[in-house]
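Subject: for your reference before the review

Hello V.,

The reviewers asked for a structural picture of the protein, and I figured it would be easier to keep everything in one thread rather than splitting it across files. Below is the amino acid sequence we used in the manuscript, unchanged from the supplementary table.
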Amino acid sequence: MAGRDTFQLRFVAVAASAAVLIFLMAGQVAESRMINICSHTAYPSLCRPLVKRITDPRRATHRTIQALEVKTKVALAEAARFKNGNQAISTCFGTFSDAIFNLASAKKSIRKRDVMEINTYLTAAVSDYGACVDGFIETGQVNAVQNVAVDLRKISSNCLTLSTLIS
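And here is what came back from the structure prediction:
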């Protein structure tokens, strides 16, 4: 009888160990997929915090667009404060407004599952942020609006890359 109880205890211990191992491996696979989704982007360090635990490219793109919209609205308010008398900041004010429209349109395209349209709007947003950055380069200025515009361009580039992974 004692041999049978020992066998049952060993069996339960092995089964529990296997369950824990499977659980840990599944977590590593999910973590690996999240890292892999961001590894496709040009700026993975900006991608990872925005797509925490998301492995689906469609959801990751949507989450990144949402974060980009929020950051762009903050940048738009900042540019509005300083746009008078500064051509580069005035240009950014206009391009940030365009980018907000393009991001909202890209989100609608995600709901429609129209990948080509998503990519079109995100490409336009990348161009909007790029035009803002170019305005500062041409005038030789460096300021807070330019620094934000550079980050927005990087995040929008990541967003466009994530959208290309949607199937």
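For the response letter, the relevant points are probably these. Residues 109 and 116 are 9 Å apart (CA to CA). The domain at 40-164 is CATH 1.20.140.40 (Butyryl-CoA Dehydrogenase, subunit A; domain 3).

Happy to draft the paragraph if you're swamped.

O.
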